[in-house]
Amino acid sequence: MNLTAGDIAKLAEGDLKGDASVRVSGAAPLEKAGLGDLAFLADPAHAPAALASGAGCLLAPRGAEELLKDFKGAAVFTKNPKYAFMLALRLVEKEARPLPPAGTHPSACVSPSAKVEPSAHIGPCAVIEEGAVIGYGAVIGAQCYVGRNAKIGRASRLYPGVKVLDGCEVGAECILHAGAVIGSDGYGYTSPRGTHEKIPQLGRVVLEDKVEIGANTAIDRAALETTLIGAGTKIDNLVHIAHNVQIGKNCLIIAQAGIAGSTKIGNGAIIAGQAGISDHITIGDNSVVMAKTGIMSDLPPNQVVFGHVGRPRLQAMKIEALLSKLPEMHRTLSKIKKQLGL
Known about the structure:
UDP N-Acetylglucosamine Acyltransferase, domain 1, flat, alpha/beta, ten-stranded parallel β-sheet, twelve-stranded mixed β-sheet, 40 strands, 16% helix
């Protein structure tokens, strides 16, 4: 990145105070930023930290002009400094981690019946099976596997070691991190004679546009139809999504969460770390399941729940507080029983 403070102001749609010609070539936290760095202040309450910063250019919220009147560098006041900082980081990322060039590495194995756009990149030792479709500008990293009749959409990126198995579909502008597995068999068995017999899993997985899947996350194919991840949903590392699950748009599913089969999750829901969602239930739109919470029945929209049995958050917090008082309550009850001769 090689931008002036004036360029940053245009990018942030903000108001510049200071020298527009100040140049920044990097980005850093407030406390570590130097003259060549861009930093941001999200909360005016932390203005003293910004004043002590050595950043050459600062993104700050509108309304904090007076608090930052003594800032030594250039300051850009904008509606959302964090968002503007993210836009600048995208420019840094393009330089620091450029996309690999179009073309197929000599060590890759591409079926003659696969359809690969010339603008796509197929990395070393990648395997593209028969009937697969690789879209415009897609990046298939080293040692990736794209199964028979699978589809990878426009500008999607598969980091090294991703597996998209037979018949599964990845939409446009998706990001799949290293080790993710899309389309592993669902966990389905029947036990008619005392032994567990595998039920064939013949469905598929569909990721809609702009979905991100974290490292070593597994999403199982449906038994007969489709396991669906809605557009804009972001799934963290080490998450398991079971067969036939339907996840809505713009959800956040956080590390080590597990969602059991045939559950439906509404749009905008948040499933926090290590939460466990039972099978064949519905989580309503915009509901939040907090960390380590277990959900065993339907959850209406716009709820925030916590605890091993997923109670409303405030109720669960009160119960947790009361649990710490149980020893004292037990001692008091024992004294009362003794006084009453019970």
